[in-house]
Design brief:
245 residues, alpha/beta, Rossmann fold, six-stranded mixed sheet, three-stranded antiparallel sheet, 11 strands, 30% strand
């Protein structure tokens, strides 16, 4: 096993007969926060699904540590209580829900609180709003306590305050030594929170660097065909606005 929580070499993935990922390589370090950016159809979700072992590779290799994966647009079809859904992140350790240990129950309590779900613990999932359900699915992912988190648009359904809270929560995960890979569409959040930016276009990685270097290279301007105006503040990076390229 590589010391890297995720190492991808020369990965090629097809969907049907259509090549989607072409010769893609990526190597993560523990404690990193990698934001995957790119236009629609760039291959971002396919990359995460392949990294999670859900999609087969036509060519290349993937070496990974134990992981937790949050898919895009996840849902729950049954009226299960929120706590039971989050507990699914622990059942692979203890089997049936009734067999979970006190340590497992403590982890469930921890992630419910971290995701501001304690008061919703007994509510059926089918009675939740879209944003609440998104937080429940994130909590289930965090409950796995995996060293590698693969998250596909984890803040897409959240209001601005919850988006910031979620990004802060993921940053805390990296401070514990876990590696986070998140597909994001909010460039402001990506540039402010990520330690590394991977930009995809046409099934390839076209840039892979720190947020500062990515901005200096103006690669986002070219890929998204926009103009990015950046204001640097005393507390870090902040996007001031966007315009047509």
């Amino acid at each position: 096993m590589s010391a890297s929580p995720l190492e991808i070499r020369d990965l090629c993935v097809d969907l049907g007969k259509r090549p989607v990922l072409q010769g893609l390589s990526l190597c993560l370090t523990p404690g990193s926060f990698t934001a995957v950016l790119g236009p629609n159809g760039a291959g971002k979700s396919t990359l995460l699904r392949a990294a999670a072992g859900i999609l087969p590779a036509r060519a290349g290799t993937i070496t990974r540590s134990r992981l937790a994966y949050l898919p895009q647009n996840g849902g729950i079809a049954w009226p299960m209580p929120v706590r039971d859904i989050v507990a699914l992140g622990r059942t692979h350790f203890g089997g049936l829900r009734s067999l979970l240990s006190p340590a497992d129950e403590a982890v469930i309590d921890e992630v419910l609180e971290a995701c501001s779900l304690t008061e919703l613990a007994d509510r059926p999932a089918t009675e939740l709003s879209g944003g609440e359900l998104s937080r429940v699915l994130l909590a289930r992912t965090l409950a796995v306590k995996a060293p590698l988190l693969l998250l596909d648009e984890p803040v897409a359904a959240l209001d601005p305050a919850r988006q910031i809270g979620t990004m802060d929560l993921l940053t805390r995960e990296t401070r514990q030594g876990n590696a986070v890979v998140a597909v994001l569409h909010d460039l402001t959040l990506a540039l402010r929170y990520a330690t590394r930016i991977v930009v995809m276009d046409g099934g390839r990685i076209v840039a892979d660097d720190t947020p500062e270097a990515i901005l200096d290279l103006q690669v986002l301007d070219r890929v998204f065909n926009i103009r990015i105006d950046l204001a640097r503040t005393s507390d870090g990076r902040q996007l001031a606005g966007f315009g047509h390229g």
